[in-house]
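Posting this for the archive.
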Amino acid sequence: MARSPYRPPRLLRSPHLQSLLASSPLRGLRARRRLLQAPARHEPVLLELADGVRLQGVYSAPAATPRALVLLLHGWEGSLDSSYMRLTAARLLQAGAAVFRLNFRDHGDTHHLNPGLFHSNRLDEVVQAAAEVAARWPIRPYFAAGYSLGGNFALRLGLRADPQRLPLQKVAAVCPVLDPARTMDAMERGWPVYLRYFERKWRGSLARKRRLFPQLHGFDDAVLRLRMRALTAWMVARHTDFPDLDAYFDGYRVAGGRLRALAVPADILMAADDPVIPTAGFGALARLPRVHVELARHGGHCGFIERASLDGYAERWVVQRLLGAPADADSKSGDTP
C-alpha cells in the first residue's frame, strides 16, 4: 500500500472528530456554497430503468466542453446532496469534468419513486443507471467514484465495466465497505454514536416508506425498535432472496480476491483510524493487479479534513486520481472570505 501524503493538523487527528466534522451542518453549508459557485449548470434527472425502477440524479456540466464525465455515488443514508458529494462535484467541475450525482433508491427525497426497499445488493439498478448516464451523455472518458457504501458500489461497477454497455475507464473509492460483516462487528464494538446514528437514519427511512406504501410495508413499530443487526436480518428475510444475513453480507463483499476480476483500474483511499471500516483486508487488495490503495494514518470515516475551513483531502484526491489534476492543498478556487 502507498503511504498517503495527507497530514492533518494535530488538533484534527482524532478519528471521531474527523468523522463528525465530515457530516457537520457547517460543512454542509460550505459544500452548498462551493457547488453554487462552480461555473456550471445543474439539471435534475429522473432515470426510468428496467422493471419500473426509477432513480433520481443531478447532471452538472461545466461552462466549457467537458473533459470527462464522473458518476458520483454517496454512502448509506447519505444522498446526492451530502457534503462530500457537493464538494467533490464542485472540484470536478472546476477541473473541467461533467458530473452526475446519483441517489440510490430510498435516499434523499426519493422514497416515493419505488415500492420496494433499498438494500445493498441492488447492484443491477445502479449498473443500469450508470449505463443510462453513459448513453445520455456520451462524454469520454467516463469514471465512477464513491464514498463508503458508494465506494463499494463503485468497485462493483468496476467489475461490471464493459466497452459496449458500461464504458467505465476507472473507479475511485473513499473508505469503501470491503467486508460488510466486519463493518457490522466494528460498529457494534466501537463508539456507539455511529451505530445509533445509522439506526436512527434507517428507522426514519423505513417509517417514511411505510407511510407511502402502507399496504406493502405493514410492519409495526416493534420492527423499528430493533437494533441494527436484528433489523438487517428482518429486512433480508422479508425483502431479499438471500437465505440469511451471512449470505446477504457476502453478496456485496468485495474483500479478498473478489476484485481480481476488475475490468478497469481502481484507486482506493483509506484511513488507518477509520472507526467504521476495519483496515484488515486492504493489504490483500493492494496486491491485486488493477488496484492501488493509498493508506492515510488519520482521516476517520470519509473525513480527511485538512483545516478549520473544513476542506477535505478526499475530494482533491478523487479529482487527482481520476483526472490527473494537481491536488493543490492551498487552492482557493471557489472560496469566499
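Strands lie at 2-3, 40-48, 54-62, 69-73, 98-102, 142-147, 168-174, 266-271, 291-296. The radius of gyration is 19 Å.
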